[in-house]
Amino acid sequence: MQAFIVMQGRTYQQEKTAGLIWTQQRAQGQAVPPTWARIKAIQPQDILFHYVAGQIVAVSQAQTQVQTAARPAFLADVATPQVNLVRLRYYELPTPLTISAYLPQLRPLLPVKHAAFQADGSGNQGYIYPCYSLLLAQLIDLIEAQYFDAKQNEQLSLAMSAVAATEADPLVRLLVNADLINRRQISQAQQAFTAAVKQQQVLQCAICGVEQPQLLQATRLKPLKDSTPEERNIAANGVLLCANHAQLVAQGLLSFSRSGRLLIASQVGLLDQERLALTTQLRLDFQPAATPFLNWHRRFVFQR
């Protein structure tokens, strides 16, 4: 299951009524904007969040892949007689989710490049944006919390209400199922990534040498939120570390030079450097395939 954020405007109501999203067809050889082309990635059962004027107003589930179809009547001003469309089942939210109200929760989960939302919560130009697993989980949590608050069930957790509520409400049923599938996919992806890293690296923390298996974590250099699907589980994007050093790398307090030398952010004090066995003399032997991921980490994650 994948998830997407769809930026809609004046045609939202007609698109919801018709149960679809669409893009205009382009002549052969004519450039297609990436956020338009993404409609071809949508598969049946995928989840879509519909954003209009600063708010997520609906959630939908794809019923089909992209199709070439006759132009709907409400698109009379579209030049081409046929359009690309995906059939959806829309579920309007009882209370729209205002993105700007939840920026502290959402901002850390937004990709550095090609995010659906700007820093102030307004939408970026474009049409269809990917919504990767951790952002999907957060959006579901926020919508669920707001939904139950609107229903005056503030003390009722989703786990307690799932059996009763989902039988009566298709929106809740969709969110519950999507959340379960997404969490299973997160777990499976992390297991696959960890296995790939362990196959390529010595089974110890690359910085301090700790070998206790329970303390070791496969840590991404290019964060999950910024990685393409192809990059997320490959060993070259990872380094095996103990829990402490994994957090320092993830938070941008440690990084690595092009030659693999350890870089330490100025926020890490000398006493903590000693306690954590950090030294700029340490040099790791990364494979050439790790170069783009090391570059990304230094540029976008490392706090210097």
Q: Can you tell me about this structure?
A:
This protein has nine helices and eleven strands. It is an alpha+beta fold.
Number of strands: 11
Report the portion of residues in β strands. 15-25%
Q: What class do helices, strands and sheet pairing give? A: alpha+beta
Mean pLDDT: 91
- The helical percent reads 25-40%
Element string (H = helix, E = strand):
EHEHEEEEHEHHHEEHEEHH
> How many domain units?
2
Low-confidence stretches: none
End-to-end separation:
37 Å
CATH architecture of the largest domain: Roll
Q: What is the overall shape? A: elongated
By DSSP (H or I, 4+ residues per run), the number of helices equals: 9
CATH superfamily label of the largest domain? ph1033 like domains
CATH topology of the largest domain: ph1033 like fold
What's the Cα radius of gyration? Answer: 22 Å
In the CATH scheme, the class of the largest domain would be Alpha Beta
Largest sheet: 7 strands, mixed
Keywords: Endonuclease, Hydrolase, Nuclease
Organism: Loigolactobacillus zhaoyuanensis
GO molecular function: endonuclease activity
Protein name: HNH endonuclease
How do the helices and strands line up, and which of them pair or pack?
Layout: E1 3-7, H1 12-18, E2 20-24, H2 34-37, E3 47-52, E4 55-62, E5 67-70, E6 82-98, H3 103-106, E7 128-130, H4 133-150, H5 158-168, H6 170-200, E8 216-220, E9 238-242, H7 243-250, E10 254-256, E11 262-264, H8 270-275, H9 291-301
Parallel strand pairs: 1-3
Antiparallel strand pairs: 1-7, 2-6, 3-4, 4-6, 5-6, 8-9, 10-11
